[in-house]
Amino acid sequence: MYKMKCFAGVLMGLALASCGIDAVPLEPLESPAVASELKSTSPQQQAVGVAQYDPVRQAPICSASSASCDSGSLLVGRGALGPELGAPNTINASCADGSSGKFHVDESLDRLYIATVFGGPLTEGAQVTVSAFVWAENQYTHDTLDLFHAADANNPSWTHIATLKPGNKGLQVIRTSFPLPAGAPLQAIRGVFRYQTGSAKSCATESYTDHDDLIFAVNEKMPPTAVLTQPTEGTSVEGTVLLKAEATDNVAIQRVKFWVNGRLLGSDESAPYELPWNTLETANGTATLVAEAVDTSSNTTSSTAVRVTVMNASTAVYDPVLRAPSCATVGSLCDTVTLLNGRGNQGPELNSPNTINTSCIDRNAGTYHVDESLDRLSITTVDGGPRALGQQVTISATVWAHRNYTSDTLDLFHAPDANNPSWTYVTTLVPTGSGRQVLSATMTLPAGSPLQAIRAVFGIRGTTAEICSAGSYMDHDDLIFAVADGAPATSGD
Ligand SMILES: [Ca+2]
Ligand SMILES: [Ca+2]
Ligand SMILES: [Ca+2]
Ligand SMILES: [Ca+2]
């Protein structure tokens, strides 16, 4: 329409003051109240949440998701008045600013600030507050602020949010709250500050109207898809296999995580999504594999679980007759992997006590992985050949030592016949720190039966090594393994 005040100003002294005539002194940019308002929001400005002018979309943008987005000083003024940098600051220059009047005498929208009410990033459905810093003219009751929202800043369709009135002349903040609708990853708000009667329009033609947009990244809630494509259901695996997954998202995938039996193996941040899996670290038997896709808004989707059978000849299996882990075929490695993890009823030691014929019980004092446990045993030939008489082998024991680890001791024993064990002391090792560690010793396999065994005894024992200790933190674990007949270092058998 038209603005009465400048015509009236010629006639009336009161109106003259609001007409933008030279005799009227400019007020400061910020009143004290607004200055403190600006300060109270400035911590967010220093972080991510500070808009920059987007030369493609031609309006201020916060392109990274955060709890707020602030136009800062980018929108101060209206069109050529001020001037307003990058005017008109409407997406794709879709709506011009009015050019009448004077900066900070007549209307301008100077700043837009959007923030989540309850913290957390700007997210679909989150309640947000929009704060508009406006300059109202002296006859401020004539002025009106209309706020609009576009669910897709790249293809804006403006929905009216609120119509608000200034309560004073000069610089002030007007606010409203609304729930952010679902939409594209980049959404926008538009403020239309006008000296005009009539209904709200996203683009008004009146010559004192300022239109300003603010574009901001929004966390979306559309979850990604995830499929574990390799290995396939029901297959047998050994050694190292490559896990593969496919993942899609309406925006972008941040990473794909790979889970083995409910434990996180690792993740891949770029397609093709894959990760090597050393199955020697997983017990023989059924393993459940899941790929979990995470999108850039941290929405997650887990794939359908894929079950495979881990079959590593070097992984010991529980022998229900002898009642301890056993490698029944001759190889270079025999490893209990997870079977011995824990002690007695402290932790997940399956089939405790894991001593041949249950010849020695575990003691149950203390707490799993605070106090002592022997968690894993392996025996490996030094030359990499199959186990045989007279061959050098390395025994490795993974232990959990108490924080007062200097009281802890590992004693190793050997039985040349696992079916009728007579234990011979091998050596004593001590932890070098607290917590998880691997202690190793080397021995030569003596003559004996085709099925031999080692026993590891870990905890706080008395002054001498015993094959069965009564100390209340003692863990006893045996490992049975097949040994080839014949001379050392031959492969004839
Ligand atoms: Ca402006
Ligand atoms: Ca503008
Ligand atoms: Ca154990
Ligand atoms: Ca045990």
Description:
The protein has helices spanning 4-9, 13-16, 32-46, and strands at residues 52-54, 59-62, 68-70, 108-116, 127-136, 143-150, 158-164, 170-179, 186-195, 210-217, 225-230, 236-237, 240-248, 253-260, 263-268, 273-278, 285-295, 300-302, 306-310, 317-319, 324-327, 333-335, 373-381, 392-401, 409-415, 424-429, 435-444, 451-459, 475-482. It has three domains: 26-217, Sandwich (Immunoglobulin-like), CATH 2.60.40; 225-310, Immunoglobulin-like; 317-482, Sandwich (Immunoglobulin-like). The chain has three helices and 29 strands. It is mainly beta and 493 residues long. The strands form six sheets. It has a six-stranded mixed sheet, with no helix packed on it. One calcium ion is lined by residues 75, 77-78, 84, 108-110, 210, 212.
How much β-strand is present in the residues? 35-45%
Shape assignment: elongated
Considering DSSP H and I runs of 4 or more, what fraction of the residues is helical? under 10%
The helix count comes to 3
| Gross CATH architecture of the largest domain | Sandwich
Overall pLDDT: 89
What structural class should be given to the helix and strand makeup? mainly beta
Bound molecules: calcium ion
